Amino acid sequence: MPDQNIDPSHLETLDRDLGRLSTLEQATIYVSRPLIGLGVGLVFVVFAALLAALLFGQANNAFVVVVAAAFGAYMALNIGANDVANNMGPAVGANAMTMGVAIAIAVVFESAGALLAGGDVVSTIAKGIIAPENLGTSSAFVTAMMAALLASALWVNLATWIGAPVSTTHSVVGGVMGAGIAAAGFAAVSWGQMGAIAASWVISPLLGGLIAAGFLWFIKANIIYRDDKIAAARRWVPVLVGIMGGAFATYLAVKGVKKIVKIDLGDALLIGLAAAVVIWLIMIPIIRRQSQGLENRNKSLKVLFGIPLIVSAALLSFAHGANDVANAVGPLAAIVQASTTGDFTHAVGIPTWVMVIGALGISFGLFLFGPKLIRMVGGQITKLNPMRAYCVALSAAITVIVASWLGLPVSSTHIAVGGVFGVGFFREWDTERRMRKMKADMGQPILAPEERRRRKLVRRSHFMTIIAAWLITVPAAALLSGGIFLVIQGVMGAII
Asked: What is the pTM of this model?
């Protein structure tokens, strides 16, 4: 029994106070989560700087290398936070894997791709935007690369914060262009190369969207809209998985194993064809066994696409780590070479310690900050299921192959997000077409404009935000980089 001498009003006050403390505790935990991520990220940046200091502490310009290592680590964190959503978002949005499984797979395969196949030789200036000799001196070159690295990292960080998946490659290109203009004027820029990159802003998402929509149309026409869906799936799912396997075999041969072995596009296509046939034959009995006992409805079909989606996400992560890690560490490697040897006009190989910073940074960035963009790409633009996510993943591999054949510079971010847009807009068109046909058969009026707006399957606010971010990435990174270059130059001049 409660003590009779205690005033009941005191108990009520105590309950209210405890309630406030509980609410405060929950709020503190909620607020502290992003602070933990920022803290771990800061520790990693400091670790990268200390590693550079340990390796180059006695060398000339050691301070420059240490600062550049911190900038490179910061850029790698942002690549992990923003770019990896392209590979994992569709599979997570389709519920083929949980967020935790997606992060674990991405960390392993991104790191493997970066360390095993990501050390290809890169040019001293990203994508040939500016000829190094136009910058005049080694110190001007180093300052330009420092500005480009920091500006691109800041821009990708801002894009991640507002929830816009952007191209880290385009961010680096913009950063290099802006610093180059600030250092040597507009004549220093290779405008032909910039024109090709600008064209890729349009080509990448359109091609990815069209390919994804085309495969979704095929799946709907040949499986989903059939009377016996399971029989149709037994016939066509092995073919589709074989096509995916062949496309990824070609993709990895062209883009993912350049450091290990050089393979031209013709040989890569033959490898892909052989892989497609083998995988198709293997999948026939597997799909027949998986489909036994399944009900004849769309929900049953999702089971058959689950494992291919997980495998595709892993392969995309490996190829991404092999290719895009250079966005973080390429400029850093160039700074290291120019600072320690004075050579800034020749191609530069990426040292192992620099590649380790890139691989670890991408992994930490994905783990700490990646879920936001994964949710955006996977579920907030349009609703995905395993069949739609399969079309997005397949379009990413095929578009890169087509772009390599045509010699076009494309963005993996634009391709993947374009694929998501493609399946979403196709579903809008297909739903309205079927609704019109049904109403016409029933003698009813067509959809009113208000009803059409309610049936939009792609969120227009996200669509406009992402398109705007894509359009301004290069100029925004360029302006930011040019300003940073002038600030660094001014500070160095004041010190000297």
From this structure: 0.83
